[in-house]
Amino acid sequence: MDPENPVVQLCAEGMKAETEGREADARELFLRAWEAAGDDYEACVATHCLARHQPTPEETLRWNQECLTRADRVGDDRVRGFYASLHGTMGRAQLALGRRGPARAHFRSAAGHLDAVPPGPYREWVRLCVARGLRATDDAPAPDDPVRVLLKRLCARADLEALSLLLPAYTGSLAYTGSLAYMGSLGAPEGEERLTTALRMLHAEKRLPAPEQSALGEAIALRAA
């Protein structure tokens, strides 16, 4: 984005107001950005922010749809990296209205656009949001996840060393297998390998209590199957 663009500047001021807890000021700044928008690109940027400050789920959905429509009209590289987030917000808006089918369709679309988001913390945050949405709209029963069980045990006794090794690998990517979404890898071999390596490193230390060491071995065996 061009930091000198007046619409972008208004949105930046609005986001600063959000972080400072000045919600009314933020909404006013985003509304001014919308009113100042001179083309579909600027309107897309403004509505993405303005949608967060609506009084009802219906209005939130309406503004998110407006944002997606404007992005489609732009149709060039300037908006390629937006689509994962745009479909994610559409999914959340549909889910807030109890529309699981349309919500899931948007979360699937969001997952399909993740590769267009530049690498970094923002993409990882979007991945986690998409994973959450896919889990929330999945009708299939969740299978037992020994890694998740192990993480809960480590959290319960505050084993920060073990958690610092496993959590980045576990939550740093998105897994989507069949109809089930959970934290892990989006089916990408590198994501699976990263988590498996972290599990094996911790297992090799042989320092966990017996039940946790056993759960760790089970998780490794399951991933190797």
Offer a concise description of the structure:
By secondary structure, the chain is mainly alpha-helical. The protein contains 12 helices and 2 strands; from the N terminus they run ααααααααααββαα.
Walk across the major sheet and give the strand order: 1-2
- The coarse silhouette is elongated
Give the end-to-end Cα distance, rounded to a whole number of Å: 45 Å
Number of helices: 12
Strand content: under 5%
Low-confidence region ranges: 173-187
The biggest beta sheet, please? 2 strands, antiparallel
Task: Describe the protein in words.
This is Tetratricopeptide repeat protein. It comes from Streptomyces scopuliridis RB72. With 225 residues, the protein is mostly helical. The protein has a domain at 140-225. The chain has twelve helices and two strands; from the N terminus they run ααααααααααββαα. The chain has helices at 6-19, 23-36, 40-50, 57-74, 77-80, 83-96, 100-112, 121-136, 146-156, 160-171, 189-205, 210-224; strands at residues 174-177, 180-183. Strands 1-2 form a two-stranded antiparallel ribbon. Strand 1 (174-177) and strand 2 form a beta hairpin. It is elongated and about 65 Å long. It starts with 5 loop residues before the first helix and ends with a helix. The model is unreliable at 173-187 (pLDDT under 50).
Feature tags:
225 residues, Tetratricopeptide repeat protein, mainly alpha, elongated
